Amino acid sequence: MNSIKRDADSKSVTTHIKEYLIMTLGMCIYSFGWIGCVLPAKSTSGAASGLAIVISTALQNTVGWEIKIGTIVLVINVVLLIIAGLTLGWKFGIKTIYCIIALSMSMNMWQDILPADDFLHIDRFLSMVVGGVVTGIGVAMALMQGGSAGGTDIVAMIINKFRAISYGRVIFVLDLMIIASSLLVGFTIDAAIYGYIMTLVFGYTVDMILAGNKQSSQIFIISPKYEEITWALNHELNRGATLIEGEGGYTHKHTKMIMVVCNNRETPAVMKHVREIDPNAFMTVASVMGVYGQGFQPIKL
Question: Distance between CA atoms of 163 and 156, rounded to whole angstroms?
């Protein structure tokens, strides 16, 4: 029995190490897209990293301060985490905090290593497209391990606390506002347009890696530990769930199924929590064309 427990503990430690290594690599790839592709193109995009570029440019143009992008990203995320903690409660996982720190450090590292000019020797448009793909890959790697780069994701959580607005719509509007604000600090119109293009490429890349090109996922979970799983979904992921009465076709044993509808970016986190509670749980994941109601899109007739 002790041997089995030791094997399980060893496997758990190995799994956690693997997850943090993948998240670290993902944040390094994500930050490379910003520093190696977006910054040389003299443009910006959405998320906290895009806002950091806008703030850095404004400080440099007005008071001559040269503050590294990663440092500004860290400050933005710390402020958002404090606001979210006071508003939503201190439910943020260590993985989100770790990813934020890893992102800030890797951005500063790339800014020290990479030359300031366009070392890739490609035009601005292509540089932004490549940046969208690279950053999308990096974020998807972190999301698949239960991490998050913070930024606009945290703002969306705060807004959803008070308004039933689609998560994706909140992110999209925030990204548009960040890119538009770049025009106020000296960025050209074409730079803003390139930023919008990168946002679309980034979003499409993340969606394709996580769950295809659909916007939402419908997950059915069958497990004898449905109460524990439901509690974890409600309190750790802040995600609603519906319990449905079920009966085994062969055993005729009564049980309850859990139905979860979530943004496809949240799907890996849901599956990971279920796996940790019951590795033998039966799950089906399906893409849905539209989700309407509280927390998603409003019903329009």
Answer: 10
Dig out the tokens for 186 from the structure. 């000296």
Find the helix or strand (DSSP H, E) in which 2 lies.
Answer: helix 2-32
Do 46 and 115 lie in one domain? The reply is yes
Residue-wise pLDDT tens digits, 164-197: 676 777 888 899 999 999 999 989 999 999 999 9
If asked whether residues 184 and 237 sit together in one domain, one would say no
Mean pLDDT for all residues in the chain:
86
Question: Do residue 131 and residue 59 come from a single domain?
Answer: yes
Token pair 């720190």: residue? 101
Compute, in degrees rounded to 10, the torsion defined by CA atoms 193, 198, 199, 202: 170
Output the domain CATH number for residue 234: 3.30.70.120
Domain enclosing residue 261, as ranges = 216-288
In the chain, how many domains are there? 2
pTM of the model: 0.74
User: Same domain for 57 and 161?
Assistant: yes
Cβ neighbors of 22 (< 8 A, separation 6 or more) are 141, 142, 144, 145
Strands (E), the chain: 216-222, 242-247, 254-263, 282-288
Closest C-alpha among 29, 28, 76 to residue 52 = 76
Are residue 33 and residue 114 in the same domain, yes or no? yes
